[in-house]
Amino acid sequence: MSAHRPLSARHAARHGGFTLIEVLVALTILAVALTAAMRAMGSMTESSVSLQQRMLAEFSAENHLATLRLSKTWPEPGSRGYDCPQGGVALWCEESVTSTPNPSFRRVEVAVYPSAANKSVRLAWLVTLVPNETRNVL
C-alpha cells in the first residue's frame, strides 16, 4: 500500500521530524555551551573571593598605617610580623621600618599575606613616610 502512496505523502512522512543524528548534534552543542557557561561562572566566583580578600588586606594595612600616624610615635628601624584580621578573615602583616636620607622621616612598609605560613601571595603592600613628631620639624 505504501508503494501506491503519492510522492508528496511519502516526502512529507520522511521529513516530518528530526533524525536521531540531528538531535544528538544539537544536544552536543548544548552540552558544550552549558559547560563553558559553568566554567565562566566558577571563574567569576573565584575572582570575587580573591578580590574580597585583597580588599580586606588593603583595609588592614591602611588601618595599621593610620594608627601609626595618629599615635605620633617614632618607629624604630627593623621588621616585625603580627596578626591583622579584618572582616572575619585571618591575615598576617609584616611591617618594615627603614631610615630615609632625611633624618626627620622613617619609611614604613606594610605587607599583608594570607597567613604567617603562606607568604606565596602578597595580598597588599603599602608604604608611607612617618615624620618625627618629637622634633617638631613640620
Summarize the structure.
The protein has 138 residues and is of the alpha+beta class.
> Please, how many helices?
2
Helix content: 40-55%
Total E-strand runs: 4
CATH-defined topology: Pantoate--beta-alanine Ligase, Chain: A,domain 2
Q: Which sequence of SSEs, written as H and E, runs from N to C?
A: HHEEEE
State the secondary-structure class: alpha+beta
Work out the count of structural domains: 1
Beta-strand residue fraction: 15-25%
Lateral arrangement of strands in the main beta sheet: 1-2-3-4
Name of the CATH class: Alpha Beta
Mind summarizing the main beta sheet? 4 strands, antiparallel
Which CATH-level-2 architecture? 2-Layer Sandwich
**What is the CATH superfamily?**
GSPII I/J protein-like
Structure description:
This protein is α+β, with helices and mostly antiparallel strands. It has a single domain, classed as 2-Layer Sandwich (Pantoate--beta-alanine Ligase, Chain: A,domain 2). The chain is built from 2 helices and 4 strands. It has a 4-stranded antiparallel β-sheet, covered by helices on one side. The protein is rod-shaped.
SSE order and pairing:
Layout: H1 7-14, H2 20-71, E1 78-83, E2 92-99, E3 105-113, E4 124-131
Antiparallel strand pairs: 1-2, 2-3, 3-4
Characteristics:
single chain; 138 residues; alpha+beta; Pantoate--beta-alanine Ligase, Chain: A,domain 2; four-stranded antiparallel beta sheet; rod-shaped
